[in-house]
Design a protein that fits this description.
This protein is an alpha/beta fold and about 250 residues long. It has helices spanning about 15-25, 35-50, 65-70, 100-130, 150-170, 190-195, 200-205, 215-225, and strands at about 5, 30-35, 55, 80-85, 135, 175-180, 235. It is built from 8 helices and 7 strands; from the N terminus they run E-H-E-H-E-H-E-H-E-H-E-H-H-H-E. Strands 3-2-1-4-5-6-7 form a 7-stranded parallel β-sheet, with helices on both faces. Helix 4 links the parallel strand 4 (about 80-85) and strand 5 (about 135). The protein starts with a strand and ends in a 14-residue tail after the last strand.
Length: about 250
């Protein structure tokens, strides 16, 4: 029987790349996202790779919708082997005292509360089965704040702490917990951050070869594929010319 991976935010970027990588690696997939058309397109592609796929359309900020989605799973689909908590975003790049409170709420509700909700819904059954793996997509931004990153950096610092706390809480079981912290990754991340301003988003990646979603998916799959006695607790992944969250050398 194939293993099952659940990937949140699977319609683009790192989430989509993780879904494709796990399908390629022989997993069946549960993919989630807010955009039904994009999610269905990804589903068809994964099925073409030979995976069985369930697509669940909901927003991780909606705890009731999350619960309904997980409760809808039947049979073997309840036995989730890998949960990839990927759904997340950054909004705005203003000084903290000039930020938009709505942007703050969206980031906190998605990056922190959404991750917690999915963890609460999926991990108890992993502990009960005494197997499973939670992979949280954090960020180098969670290690130290950078200029104008304030609230986003805070949410990713929370992801690190929440991940560490979960790892401690499940240590008596065989459930493994991983935090992957990407640096500069070229996805639609910056387009969303700048509220659709593609020109401004493109400038983020000028002069440096950034990471891709596939690069991060490779790390996630490696962590999930490690021997059972090996727990890849945390991985920081940066582009070659990126020294930290705030040090980027452009050429």
């Amino acid at each position: 029987m194939k293993k099952i991976a659940l990937v949140t935010g699977a319609t683009s970027g790192i989430g989509e790349a993780c879904a494709r990588k796990f399908a390629e690696g022989g997993y069946n997939l549960i993919i989630t996202g807010r955009n039904s058309q994009k999610l269905e397109a990804v589903k068809k592609d994964l099925e073409a790779q030979g995976a069985e796929v369930i697509a669940l359309v909901y927003d991780v900020r909606d705890a009731a919708a999350c619960k309904a989605a997980i409760d809808s799973l039947t049979g073997q689909w309840k036995d989730i082997d890998v949960l990839v908590n990927n759904a997340g975003l950054a909004l705005g790049l203003e000084k903290e005292y000039e930020g938009d409170p709505e942007d703050w709420n969206t980031m906190i509700d998605t990056n922190i509360k959404g991750l917690l909700t999915m963890t609460r819904l999926v991990v108890p059954h992993m502990v009960e089965r005494n197997e499973g793996h939670v992979i949280n997509i954090g960020s180098v931004a969670g290690d130290a704040a950078y200029a104008n990153g304030n609230v986003y950096c805070a949410t990713k610092a929370a992801v690190k702490t929440i991940t560490d706390g979960l790892r401690i809480d499940v240590a008596e079981s065989a459930v493994r917990v991983t935090n992957i912290k990407p640096g500069l990754v070229e996805t639609n991340f910056s387009v969303i951050r700048f509220h659709g301003d593609e020109q401004r988003a493109d400038n983020v990646y000028k002069g440096i070869k950034p990471l891709t979603g596939a690069d991060i998916a490779d790390v996630a799959f490696y962590a999930a594929s490690a021997p059972k006695h090996v727990q890849i607790a945390e991985v920081l992944v940066l582009a070659t010319h990126q020294g930290s969250g705030s040090v980027i050398v452009r050429k």
